[in-house]
Amino acid sequence: MSNSTKLQFANSVRRYALATASVTALLTSAPMALADDAAAKDPELEEVVVTGSRVVRDGYDAPTPVNVLGADEIKAAAAPNIADFVNTLPSVAGSATAANSAGSLSNGQAGISALNLRALGTGRTLVLFDGQRSVVSAATGQVDTNTFPQALISRVEVVTGGASSAYGSDAVGGVVNFILDKDYTGVKATAEYGETTYGDNENWKFNLTAGAKFAGGRGHVLFSGERVRQDGVHYYSRDWNKSGYFGVRNPDTSAGAPWFIVSKNVGISAYTPGGLITNTALKGTYFGVGGAVNQLNYGAVTGQWMIGGDWKYSSSGMNGTNSLAPDEERDSLFGRVSYELTDHLSVFGQASYAKYSGLSYYINPTQTGIVIQADNAYLPASVKAQMTTLGLKTFTMGTSNADMPASGSNNERETWRYVAGINGDFEAFGLAVDWDGYYQHGKTETLELETPTWNTARLTLATDAVVNPANGQIVCRSTLTNPTNGCVPLNRFGVGVASQAALNYVLGTPWRTQEFKQDVAAVNFRTNSIEGWAGPISLAVGAEYRKESMDGYVPTEYQASGWKYGNYKVTKGDLNVKEAYVEVLIPLLKGLDLNSAGRYTDYSTSGGVKTWKVGLTYSPIDDITFRASRSRDIRAANMSELYDSGTARSNSVNINGASVAFVQNLQGNPAAAPEVADGYGVGIVVQPRFLPGFAASVDYYDIKVDGVISFVTAQQTADYCTINKIASYCNNMIYSGGVLQTINLYYANLNKMIARGLDVEASYRVNLADLYEPLAGDLALRLQATHYIENVTDDGVTAINLAGANTSSTPDWVYRFSASYKLDDWKFDLTARGVSDGVVSNAYTQCLSACPASVSPYFTINDNHVDGALTWDLAVNKSFEINNMDLETYFSIKNLFNSEPVLVANPANLGAENTVGYLQTNRTLYDVMGRTFRFGVRMEF
Description:
The chain is mainly β.
């Protein structure tokens, strides 16, 4: 890079630091002030280009807001990984984490940490590593951020606005760019340990990083390695999760009564841990420990639920079976070598490897409608006698299968990434030009392994146990006619009664391997030296080629739908993308800049599309900056949406108040067209000269996505068919003998998605001695908040606003306040994280009597309120030096006051099988682990 251009970049960093601040969308004054100070001391920082624009120059403030999370903030948070810290930003909503993805059994997403800006979906947030794309971790296009070298991340830049014209597909909600500290020199290491106040979820983290110059400073080498271990929390429920807080269909169906009832002491009425008879005169008979026969005390029954009665016992086989935290093992290695061939040309090569192993449980598997014959050999004698007296030949039974293990995933994922690049500068036609190019090859290999789950055919055979009249032994009925079928009879009547041999027969561990490949080649050119009438004009042009492919293997016995969970199918496909862009920055008048960009992209799957942006920034005085932007962005279908051969997932839906089991078959659509998003943004940044160190900003965003690539859920399909009487959805529900077997779901371009909101930020940095001389130390205050105004997906039938619904990921307000105080070698950080009060659903009407008629999905409910929450975190750091080694010890407490999460009822999911076993809260918004301690030591020399 030329000296003149370096100076312009250095100035741009300083001007960015001083001129921009935003919530989850701007360059924030607190971290950027640190960057500004560092820039004055470290010339290496002169080459920083802030994410969101390909052109940056002195005096220019981007019209698209950017949030920079600096190294000090990342360290102070002491999060297990950087993604967990980024997820605390108010504009990051609904992200996938290893903890909340336990239910992703058949699609391979369990264990992935994928970021989600504006709650538009992880697929609409582009994640970059040092400005470059990274190979995906699943067919859905998600990039696991834990594959990045955590110890070498110098900062994280979050662009909360459309950036497709700069980076291509997926940047509808914005971009999260993890910036690599390429110039680190020295050796540093971290050792860290954490656990909760309950003594569980123990975790360890160790990393070692080294960097050195060679060849007289012309070369530089980097290495980093990290190991992370975490003990999960399984088969355990915190006390707050034991109150039976659910939203169910009101047992009182009289006119004027609310449709839904939210209440405590709600449990399941369709099964018990060891089996419950659900029809005939024996209804309510259940089998307990050792097969003991008991009678269930039913409460007020409503569908598969009941209020009161023995609710706690009936649900006890499910409560706590959804993992509170997963087991995790993560290992990563990263290496990089760079060399200056000449003063104007440098090359580099880097390689990384990351491995993940994770175990998490979804729920204990349930089964209803089991037909039991009167001659079943394991039936307790008293029940058999009653059947004889009543003349019963069969009964049906429901069970949560206490003798079987919980169903879950034990996934492994390995990612390799190789990059070779070149960058330099030259002069041509009187212009100073900087350029760079790179080639990247990435590969992810996955082993998706189910924990033991039953084979449906084998379970049916094993359940039908009889006495062999020839020898008096208990055998499968099928064995009488097929002696070599290998069937082992299974006792289903009670807790602790199943033999290991029978479980070995009915259970299996379905698995699938997948391989994802990505090849990227890109080249970029930039100049800031075109003379304009109001100042230098900046220009950037570039082109990129990308190819992605996926393949896999599933053993024949684990394909189709023969298993309770993990009915994997092989999905194969590939695509390639060719694109070119141009971006220009033109000073129009003093203080008024125009930023515009255009990109043409050609997808092998859907043809060519154009994206663009136009932005203005105006600073009439140094204290105030106005900005506005308009963009056209796109997202093309990922490989799952294009080629998914049918994800066969077992679940249940609510039909006429009853929970009905089925197999969900989600299929790709090669004809899916790219989504088209129109985004608008306006904002103001205020940094008054009369209050040095203070900055505040307000930004409004409005995003409309047409042709949203998604699918109508299974429950929506059932509702649209049975309630709304839409024939096309009824055609997707496949019955056999009057019994629902499959619900076919298809990716398609739905109508639209709308997201509107407001970002607010204020920050203040001051040396206390400047306020009052006897005081000492540096104080930094920062408030970030996002107001979600609208979050709607219109599927052509309904369009419900999820903003303000605390059952979703977009409550009315999300906010974060941090205060940092540094005095000599001590540093204290206090953080408050909160969400506002909200509702269960904006489609519901709260009433207790004289309620209006309910028409799906606009129901009445007795309590539509959900409380907000405020959670406090505290961190203390102490730095010192021993024998020329810099040491830092740190101690953090997350959820300082051990606040329990707010209980959240979600009656929209009352028919789902997993609702009983899932946490009775929204783990996306509320802290579920409780008070968590972390202690660590950082060493550097």
